[in-house]
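Hypothesis: this fold can be encoded by more than one sequence.
Test: take the structure tokens below, design a sequence, compare later.
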């Protein structure tokens, strides 16, 4: 069940279309990720969605979206000229040593990031919130409407972290908190396109499922 509880208390539910790729591989591959695009079939027609490669795909717009790695919730947006927007709670600035900076940049270079994004990291890394502790958020999906969807870190003390529901905090393009969405732990959110959520699931026997949720406000 895909459900969103925004600040005003309304509830957002879904209708869903699902395609499953047979284990024997006889059907065409339904989803393919490459550097720059993800595509899937919808009502028999191929749909292509652009994204920038990363741990969580996001729309390509020549910007870097950085999640703060410690303390209260915050994220930053960097463009070619540097910091464009930061959403955070006031706290003292952390000091990051040169070794941490070097390791951070090496990880970025090894992550198949486009050259334009690597240049932003290299030129502005001294001002970025480099992770050095357990994250408040584990991932970010940036929608085509400018919303930032941030996945809360799993509780390491939970009995079954893998089976626990995901909670996504949603901010609008100006950094104002909208609300949160809860998804089952086995569902991977890939893209938010308008009121449509594209998700990918691989079950215990290797079947790939693409689920496209049409989100509608109710209540």
């Amino acid at each position: 069940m895909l459900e969103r509880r925004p600040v005003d208390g309304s509830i957002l539910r879904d209708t869903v279309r699902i395609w499953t790729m047979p284990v024997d591989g006889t059907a065409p591959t339904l989803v393919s990720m490459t550097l720059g695009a993800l595509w899937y079939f919808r009502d028999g027609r191929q749909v292509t969605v652009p994204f920038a490669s990363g741990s969580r795909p996001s729309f390509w717009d020549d910007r870097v979206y950085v999640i703060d790695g410690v303390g209260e919730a915050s994220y930053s947006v960097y463009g070619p000229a540097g910091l464009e927007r930061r959403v955070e709670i006031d706290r003292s600035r952390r000091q990051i040593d040169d070794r941490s900076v070097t390791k951070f940049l090496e990880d970025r270079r090894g992550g198949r990031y486009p050259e334009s994004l690597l240049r932003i990291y290299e030129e502005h890394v001294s001002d970025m919130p480099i992770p050095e502790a357990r994250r408040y958020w584990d991932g970010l999906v940036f929608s085509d409407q400018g919303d930032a969807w941030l996945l809360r870190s799993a509780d390491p003390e939970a009995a079954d972290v893998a089976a626990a529901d995901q909670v996504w905090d949603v901010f609008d393009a100006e950094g104002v908190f909208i609300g949160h969405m809860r998804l089952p732990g086995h569902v991977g959110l890939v893209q938010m396109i308008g009121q449509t959520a594209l998700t990918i699931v691989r079950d215990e026997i290797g079947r790939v499922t693409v689920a496209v949720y049409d989100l509608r406000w109710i209540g």
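DSSP finds two helices and 15 strands in the chain. The first strand starts at residue 3 and ends at 6.
Hypothesis status: open.
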